[in-house]
Please model this.
Amino acid sequence: MIVTKVGNVFDEQTRTSAGSDLSPAYLRRACDASLRRLDTDRIDVYLIHGGFAGPEDVPAVVDVLEELVAAGKLRWYGSSVSDPAIVRAMAEGPHMVASQHELNVLRGELETLSVAEELGLACLNRTPLAMGLLSGRYRSDALPAADDVRRNAPWWDFFDEGAMERWLERIAEVRAELTADGRSLVQGALGWIWGRSPATLPLPGFRTVAQVQENVGAAEHGPLPAERMERIQSILGEPLPA
Model:
């Protein structure tokens, strides 16, 4: 399955995002460019990265996405914008199948998850391992490199001084439940997501072959059993709002 995003304008000189564009001309041009770079004739799921001022902007974008489906360039599309109102508006499109939003045992966008479940959409879950904090590799004295994006972005605080210690305390409280039955901490965290909802598809990152193997190994264990999900719920409550 090939999944990619559209909406951000990329500055080739600085290698950074340069705003957003959801105009029909840009959507068509960006799709063709992605097909060329990916060396494929069809994208399975095309996610809107951002750029909506509100739900009123959605129908014009969906019209272009449906045009690209009809042309055979896309199979389906989805929203990487986690605003529930945007997800509902995009779901008016016949080929809308997925909503990407944050979800892990520590925090998540639960309203978006509920909307996706209601509408029968797949939930593509970003940060399922809390940007690596749920790998067990990191402590206050063992951090990602200073220039790592995980320490230099406004979207999460897993490695921020003061916040990281609190997150680690919460992980310690449920570690035994996550790692029972021979799972690693990573595999338990992914199993928790599957146990939270059958609609979820966690998207864990990886940098090594060993990490890929550990991620794939989570599928052999499957969702956490209901009784352990309940114990984690009693310890932590619901994930905190993202």
In short: The radius of gyration is 19 Å. The first helix runs from residue 24 to 38.
